[in-house]
Amino acid sequence: MSEALRAVLGEDQALVREGIATILRAAGIEVVAAVDNAVELVRVTREQRPDVVITDIRMPPDLNADGLRAAQEIRAARPETAVIVLSQFLDASYALDLVGDDPSGVGYLLKEKVASPQVLTDAVGRVVAGESALDPDVIATLVGRKRTADPLAALTPKEREVLALMAEGHSNSGVARQLFVTVPAVERHVTGIFMKLGLSQASSSQHRRVLAVLRYLEQ
């Protein structure tokens, strides 16, 4: 039997912290520490060396983006630790700051979505596996931005759906499951998307693909 995943949780609101911990434990994930500030989050993560860190974006001591900065510090010090940041507000810039130059092992979810246990546990599984899990609403905001001479206008509705799922971190097979189509159909859409957006397909790396899409949407 494989060992249970180990998680460290950072959340300053006691009820929310306990609710998230309950969801994780029910999924068989061991919560090795749960703290209420960013300084302690970095410290206990260094000590416990968990598989995943889940943190609110706004926490003491400054009640600003302390959780995000702690997550970035944790990633820099120990890249093998997966990180999920929870945000009360839809802010795509936070997600892009968290991803940086490497989307592997990173998740960004809106807090309201965490009320659904499956959303959180699915995200944990994906980031621990080295994938990314970015909130669909954040990606939709980026996809929906108006641009001058916008190449996105050339995409078909189905290609837009595929693009959004790619940016969330789904593989071709994951996109196929979400849209109830075949993997070859997704591959054809992906080829069309990259051609229309002028993005390189030189690398088959899922991480580079997600990063390329995010960088395009960020512009």
From TrEMBL:
Positions carrying 4-aspartylphosphate: 56
| Record keywords | DNA-binding, Phosphoprotein, Transcription, Transcription regulation
Q: Which CDD domains does the record cross-reference, listed alphabetically?
A: LuxR_C_like, REC_NarL-like
Q: Which Pfam families match?
A: GerE (PF00196), Response_reg (PF00072)
Where the record annotates domain Response regulatory, the positions are: 6-126
Pinpoint the HTH luxR-type domain residues.
148-219
User: Looking at the keywords, is Membrane present?
Assistant: no
Official protein name in the record: Response regulator
Q: Which organism is it from?
A: Streptomyces flavalbus
